[in-house]
Structures are given as C-alpha cells and as structure tokens.
Amino acid sequence: MKQPNYYAIISAEVRYDKNLTANAKLLYAEITALLNMNGECFATNKYFSTLYGKSVVTISKWIEELIVNGYISSSYTYKGGTKEIDKRYLSILKGGIKENDKGGIKENFKDNNTSINNNITYSNNKGRFKKPTVNDISNYCIERKNNIDAETFYDFYESKNWKIGKNKMKDWKACVRTWEKRQIKNNTGMSKIHSHLQKNMNVKEKLKQQLNR
Fold first, then answer.
1. What is the pLDDT at residue 164?
2. Is residue 112 a contact partner of residue 11, using CB atoms and an 8 Å limit?
3. Rg (Cα) of the chain, in Å, rounded?
C-alpha cells in the first residue's frame, strides 16, 4: 500500500489533550496529511485499517474520539437517488487545517505558534520582543529629543528582566515614550512648584523692604 508522503500536522492542542489516546492523535495527523495531499480526506476506515494494521472497529473508535472532542467532523455524499453512502469526508475543526487546496495548506494554526515538524514551522513573529542595546535607546531618544538617559533606561529594565510588572515587555519604544511623558509631567510639576516658591519669595522680599523703610 502506497503511504502518503506529505507531512502531517499535530498541534499542541491535540498533542497534550489527555482525552485523546496516542493512536487517535496519530490518526488525526494522518488525516491532516491526506488533506494536505488531496485537499480533502475521503479515506475509509478500511483504508486506515490497512495502513496501520488495526481492525476497522479500532479505527472507528479513534475517529469517534476525535469527533467527540471536537477535533474533526464527518460528512457524507450519497449515490444518486439512494440512501447508500458514496463517500465519507473528514474535516478538521480545530488544531490544524481549516481550509485547504489540493497539494498544499491554505490556512493553518491561527492560535498555535509551535513547531509542527522538521519541514515546517508556523510562528507569529509580529510583536516578538527584541531587547534593545543602549545605542538603540540612545538613538531613539535623540530622535525624539527627550533627554532621557539611555543607560539609565537600559539598566532599569535589564534589572527587571525587561518586564513591566509581571508581563514581558512588548515594545521598548513605547516605554521610552511613557518615560518621556512622565518626564514632561514631572518637569511641568516642578515648574509650578518653582513658580510658587518664587512668588512667595517675592512677596516676602516686598514685605521686608516695606518694614525697612
């Protein structure tokens, strides 16, 4: 029997689902391989039985596991004008291929950023944090003309393992802008304090001058 030569896919969701037996997970992967190869999976239980050397009843139980746990669905086509099943189609509901074209995957793993196998890795690099250098920070601060000390900024977040509270930092430039706003706010506050102190000093000076007359 010719075995499929397309890669199979098992997401983390499927791999670590304790409600599934190891063989059901293997069958799930086989279904994804057939989907990737043909664009659809119409393999019968007998086909899987021959492929894995298991009984049709056993294959049926594995498929039932996947259906009950919401990973696949099955649908049927019937021979014209009869209730006799022509083909059964297995589709992936979650954890893998949702939509596919013959000969290749069209949409995969929107919610699962893990390595699939040695041939393909799906990951979402958008928004991945890259720790800046002091020079990166300095150049950005110069660009924004905010007078923030790059080394102070770097040392502060380096000591916190580049976390904001308990969460990993996502955008260090946004943090620079936050520091910038705080600095402006603090400077504005200090300006008001200095103005108030200067006003009081002027009043005291005037009173002193009046008393000395």
1. 85
2. yes
3. 33
Q: How far are the Cα atoms of 77, 131, 168 from residue 107, in angstroms, in the given order?
A: 25, 31, 29
Q: How far apart are the first and last CA of the chain?
A: 116
* Exposure string for 6-21, b = 16+ CB within 10 A, e = fewer: bbbbbbeebeebeebe
**What's phi and psi for 89, nearest 5 deg?**
-115, 130
Helix residue ranges, H only, 89-167 = 134-144, 150-159
The three-state secondary structure class of 68 is helix
Chain length of the chain: 213
pLDDT (tens digit per residue) in 88-109: 999 888 765 444 444 444 444 3
pTM exceeds 0.70: no
User: Token pair of 117, please?
Assistant: 């196998």
